[in-house]
Amino acid sequence: MKFSIRPLPLCAASAGFLSIALAGAAPAQASPKIGPELEITVPFNSKTRDRFGSTLKGIGFGAGGAIPRAGGRFSHDIFVARESKNDNKLEFYGAGLQYRRTFSDAPSGVFVPFYGAGVGLAYGRVRLDDDDVDDSKIVPTGSVFVGTSVGRIGVLEARVRGVGKVGTLDFSGLTLTAGLRF
């Protein structure tokens, strides 16, 4: 069975979710917490896995408390992915807007689950020597995610991210993230 994520419909669905969420968004926090995030992405596309391996590693930058407010919160979504295998190289730099909301109206405890969606743009550059491809462009991104806070500073998240095609490759996939907020 072939599974594919189309970035534009995922972006449209995420934008719809964000616009619905705007109506109930809480005001911005006075002093947001920030911190690093480590990401591992499992690409859905078999050609991408053939060229770069079964996982892509990246870093991100998170803002906002580890525990989202009950009313939800908008924040940025920033990610960087660089990978090299044999003579193949890729670079992605993405930025966008995301909305996170807790499942409970009164979040408490060590683990506070949340969900959300985001949209953005990414600059991608791909060089595939075997395929004679050297391409770079700005592409749309969209994502939906679930996660949980771990204590007051930790965040664990699973995200399906759709990314527009760069060169001949689709970099959409499942991203697992672990992060801290200070």
Structural commentary:
It is a single chain. It is elongated, with a radius of gyration of 17 Å. It is built from 2 helices and 8 strands; from the N terminus they run H-E-H-E-E-E-E-E-E-E. The chain has an 8-stranded antiparallel barrel with strand order 1-2-3-4-5-6-7-8. The relative contact order is 0.25. It has helices at residues 7-22, 46-52; strands at 34-43, 56-63, 73-85, 88-102, 111-128, 133-150, 154-163, 173-180. With 182 residues, the chain is mainly beta.
Secondary-structure blueprint of this entry?
Blueprint: H1 7-22, E1 34-43, H2 46-52, E2 56-63, E3 73-85, E4 88-102, E5 111-128, E6 133-150, E7 154-163, E8 173-180
Antiparallel strand pairs: 1-2, 1-8, 2-3, 3-4, 4-5, 5-6, 6-7, 7-8
What is the H/E order?
HEHEEEEEEE
Shape: elongated
- How confident is the prediction overall: mean pLDDT? 83
The largest sheet, given as strand count, sense and whether it forms a barrel, is: 8 strands, antiparallel, barrel
Q: Name the strands of the widest sheet in spatial order.
A: 1-2-3-4-5-6-7-8
- Tell me the number of helical segments per DSSP (H or I, 4 or more residues long): 2
Alpha-beta classification = mainly beta
Structure summary, number of beta strands? 8
* CA gyration radius, whole angstroms: 17 Å
Percent range for helical residues? 10-25%
Which residue ranges are poorly predicted, with pLDDT under 50 across at least 5 consecutive positions? 1-5, 8-30
From the N-terminal CA to the C-terminal CA, the straight-line distance is 43 Å
Which range does the strand content fall in? Answer: over 45%
